[in-house]
Amino acid sequence: MAMSRLFHLCVALLTAPSLMAQKPDLRHWSADGKARIEWSEGSVVETDMATRRSRPLVAKEVILRGLGDGDVDAFLPSSDGGRLLFFTRTKRVWRYHTRGDYHVHDRASGEWRRLGAGLPERSLMFAKFSPDARRAAYVSRYNVYVEDLSTGAVRPLTTDGHRRLINGTFDWVYEEEFACRDGFRWSPDGRRIAFWQVDAAGTRDFLMINNTDSVYARTLPVEYPKVGEPPSAVRIGIVDVEGGGIVWMRIPGDPRQHYLPRMEWLPDGSGVIVQQLDRRQQRSILWRCSVTDGSAKAVLEEKDDAWVDILPSWDADYDYGGWDWLDRGRSFLWASETDGWRHLYRVPLDGGQPRLLTPGDYDVMDIIRVDEPGGYLYFAASPEDATQKYLYRVRMDGASKPERLTPEGQPGTHEYDIPPGGRLAFHSFSSHRVPPVSEWVELPAHRGRDGESAVAAAVRASAAKPGPVEFFRLRTVDGVEMDGWMVKPAGFDPKKKYPVLFYVYSEPAAQTVTDRWGAGRHPLYQGDLSRDGYIHVSLDNRGTPAPKGRAWRKAVYRKIGVVNIRDQAMAAQAFLQRPYADTSRVAVWGWSGGGSATLNLMFRHPEIYGTGIAIAAVANQLTYDNIYQERYMGLPQENRQDFVEGSPVTHAGKLKGNLLYIHGTADDNVHYQNAEMLVDELVRHNRQFQFMAYPNRSHGLREGEGTWRHLSTLFTEYLRKHCPPGGR
User: Distance (Å, rounded) from C-alpha 217 to C-alpha 215?
Assistant: First the structure.
């Protein structure tokens, strides 16, 4: 149900003041920010940002000679640029392609080597150079290895790994809900590696069934902790790459009642800093742990009556780790909602008082660049409009107000990639009216490097063309103001009444109403909703991750399936008061959490919604994983009735309209058992509906020839039949 995020192409850095993890990417900055290194037409090219001259670092013919015709999914230059690491022949692990082959190319000698000699092909994960580029480390078959790049000698740093004891990477639920995948870190001096170990021995398997690949069915086990089940025990160890025992970090607390979602090395290499969450995820403690004996000292503690968000949950740049160190490692940057807004603080490592750096009644949406030498922190925010996004900067001394750098008059979503130094930015922009456009700009003036700004020109060009999408706000009878977008029918006639299709997600993992290109479009409908005469609408309720403050986002605590559903229904009622909305033709659809919302809206508000199409929904909240469900709903041992009340299956007997339900039988995220529980309850109440099960398809229904075409046809025909298009 936690919504899948696309594989982000993010900058990989290992520089001061920000210690960032090395990420799989096709685009990198040099350590000084003066050059950009990227994949271009089969070559690795370096571009000097001052002269804009490019030169090949590794030519196409060299890559073809070393790798053949295999696709390169990512590459990583060593810190000195002398070696490059190429990731090829990748395979999916859960959601992401994180397993495959790694090849090292030595630019000086021209030699190529595939890492992991003696290990199975396509089994390596998260390979990365040591800081001095003499070694590489990686994970294979649940163990961590280090390889000498001169001799090719491979040394296992752990040997006890198996499916239930995972070294250097994570189980399903840590990856899905904490964005934890790469589970080890090189020390700054390259002498040691710190790694996570997940003990899933106490976590029960959920069995999926493959009925189609053989005449005998086979089970597919996934270690999956359901809500109410204790977490897998997780600990962090440090091992010397030359050999020796593992020093385990002695972090207080029962490891089966806590989580360790973040860990990085201290800049001086004396140990690691670890974030620990209690099982309810209401208490966060940062521990400074010693490399010598594993002893732990608390640095910062934070509590929340609902839940504490971790950084990767809202800033995808940290999906592969990273920690923003300041003052030569004496303090660090930290995000907190303690004053009711998501703000950034300077926190002393010795446990001193945090200092607010981003004051004001707004949320920080994204950390763009920490430029400590230049004295500025760059971040994204949108104080006036939660559907948009702009660049700000603030002095690192915490004594000034934020300064907006994005020019006025460019409403929409702005993204920035700022190299070290903060003098330039790769600026990307889109809105519901302007297709994606990008440019290089000089900061802080935000001037285009090539004269007139390409973004400004695109915004001006769009001004004369009325956009198909309208953004609006409405207030419900409960006094809740919600953002929404709407696409009206082509040739709209205000004297006619048109069918309305609502698109919903409604849960804390995703915001649907954002002012960017693609808003208002439908991924499944065959044809054009507008030309066919539908009004297409989406609304963001309380609990969605909009930058509207802590109270907005956490209003759904212990009330998912109740508060978000009422907000959506009351907003729909307000919208349907418009004279051109045909209240006899109202449909709603959603996927994952949006599928759950669709079911709840159909069952609990049949007076509003006549047709619903729900895909891969959590029909019973007691079937979903513990990290997500307990974060937002608490522990079922304490408030089980909240889970029952918020679950669509509880209200299935109230169905009156037309329901199409769709689910993949190999969904390892929202298990197919949700479909069967829902079907069972609908049958018990003699409620008629249409049901489609896709064999051996996962949560995204992307496997199998013809699947998307079939799904799209099914969706389109059902909508047209039960919620006919066109004005009347």
Answer: 6
pTM of the model: 0.94
Strand order in the sheet with 481-487: 469-475, 481-487, 535-540, 498-503, 581-591, 611-615, 658-664, 690-694
**What is the residue range of 684's domain?**
469-722
What CATH number has the domain bearing residue 708?
A: 3.40.50.1820
How many C-beta atoms surround the C-beta of residue 133 within 10 A? 19
Task: Please list the residues that pair with 397 across neighbouring strands.
Answer: none
Split into its structural domains, the chain has a count of 2
**Residue 604 is inside which H or E element, if any?**
helix 593-604
Task: Give the span between the Cα atoms of 351 and 330, in whole angstroms.
Answer: 10
Query: Residue by residue, what is the 3-state secondary structure of 461-501?
Result: HHHCCCCCEEEEEEECCCCCEEEEEEECCCCCCCCCCEEEE
Burial of 705 (0-12, 13-18, 19+ CB in 10 A): exposed
Between the alpha carbon of residue 261 and those of residues 181, 247, 630, the distances in Å are: 10, 19, 15
Nearest residue to 382 (alpha-carbon basis) of 413, 357, 426, 425: 413
Cα distances (angstroms) measured from residue 561 to each of 1, 203, 343: 13, 27, 29
In a domain, 706, yes or no: yes
Report the phi/psi class of residue 346: left, alpha or beta, with left for phi > 0 and alpha for psi in -120 to 50.
beta
The residue among 77, 95, 128 that closes a domain is 128
In whole angstroms, what is the distance from residue 404 CA to residue 76 CA?
33
Give the residue with greater pLDDT, 390 vs 451: 390
* pLDDT confidence of residue 177: 96
Residue 33 has pLDDT above 90, yes or no: no
Write the CB contacts of 677 (distance below 8 Å, at least 6 apart in sequence): 619, 620, 623, 649
| CA distance linking residue 271 with residue 667, whole number of Å | 40
Domain boundary among 112, 128, 144: 128
Produce one character per residue of 238-256: b if its CB has 16 or more CB atoms within 10 Å, e if not: bbebeeeebbebebeeebe
Question: Has residue 418 been placed in a domain?
Answer: no
575, 585 Cβ separation under 8 angstroms: no
Output the CA–CA distances (angstroms, integers) from residue 54 to 38, 40, 348, in the order listed.
10, 11, 42
State which amino acid sits at residue 91: K
- Find, among 355, 433, 390, 354, the residue nearest to 547 by Cα: 390
Confidence of residue 467 (pLDDT cuts 50, 70, 90): confident
Largest CA distance in the chain: 80
In which element (H, E) is residue 274 found? strand 271-278
Region 167-188: mean pLDDT is: 96
Q: Bridge-partner residues for 664, per DSSP? A: 694
Domain-located, residue 393: no
Residues 596, 296: Cα–Cα separation, whole Å:
42
Sheet holding 376-381, edge to edge: 366-371, 376-381, 390-395, 403-404
Render pLDDT for 260-317 as a digit per residue (tens, 0 to 9): 999 999 999 999 999 999 999 999 999 999 999 999 999 999 999 999 999 999 999 9
Q: What is the rounded distance in angstroms from the CA atom of residue 446 to the CA atom of residue 404?
A: 10
Average pLDDT over the chain reads: 94
| Contact assessment for residue 77 and residue 136, using Cβ atoms and an 8 Å cutoff | no
**286's tokens:** 């940062």
Residues in the chain: 728
Residues 6+ apart with CB under 8 A from 160: 143, 167
DSSP 454: H
- Amino acid letter, residue 412: G
Peptide bond between residue 648 and the one before it cis (omega within 30 degrees of 0): no
Q: Are 574 and 604 in contact (CB under 8 A)?
A: no
3-state secondary structure of 686: coil
In a domain, 567, yes or no: yes
Task: Return the pLDDT at 724.
Answer: 98
